[in-house]
């Protein structure tokens, strides 16, 4: 039987929401092993002078705990 844990992280990118997600998962995988999924809970962006300058995502990362 597997036991999973969920942790919440925030990631950002100057390019896109997709890039912010990819960066967040890649960074999380450096310290968290056995990542199974990522659920995007929220998205937002920083706007300056009418232009989007940063894309942000709040995601829940699910990973399987080791025995």
Keywords:
single chain; 67 residues; alpha+beta; Dodecin subunit-like; three-stranded antiparallel β-sheet; 1 helix; elongated
Order of strands in the sheet with the most strands? 1-3-2
Structural class: alpha+beta
Mean pLDDT: 96
Task: Assign an overall shape.
Answer: elongated
- Helix share, percent: 10-25%
Reported CATH architecture: 2-Layer Sandwich
Total count of strands: 3
pLDDT < 50 stretches: none
User: What is the domain tally?
Assistant: 1
- For CATH, the homologous superfamily is named as Flavin-binding protein dodecin
Number of helices: 1
Based on the structure, what is the oligomeric state of the protein chains?
A: single chain
Q: How widely separated are the two ends?
A: 10 Å
Radius of gyration: 14 Å
CATH C-level name: Alpha Beta
* SSE string, helices as H and strands as E: EHEE
* Percent of residues in β-strands: over 45%
Query: Main sheet, how many strands, which sense, barrel?
Result: 3 strands, antiparallel
CATH topology: Dodecin subunit-like
Describe the protein:
- It is built from one helix and three strands, in the order βαββ.
- Strands 1-3-2 form a three-stranded antiparallel β-sheet, with helices on one face.
- A hairpin with a 2-residue loop joins strand 2 and strand 3 (51-64).
- The protein has a single domain (4-64), classed as 2-Layer Sandwich (Dodecin subunit-like), CATH 3.30.1660.
- By secondary structure, it is of the alpha+beta class.
- The model has no long low-confidence stretch (mean pLDDT 96).
- 22% of the residues lie in helices and 57% in strands.
- The longest helix has 15 residues, at 17-31.
């Amino acid at each position: 039987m597997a036991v999973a844990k969920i942790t919440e992280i925030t990631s950002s990118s100057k390019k896109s929401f997709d890039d912010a997600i990819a960066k967040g998962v890649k960074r999380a995988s450096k310290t968290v092993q056995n990542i199974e999924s990522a659920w995007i809970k929220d998205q937002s962006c920083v706007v300056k002078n009418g232009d989007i300058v940063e894309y942000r995502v709040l995601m829940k990362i699910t990973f399987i705990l080791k025995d």
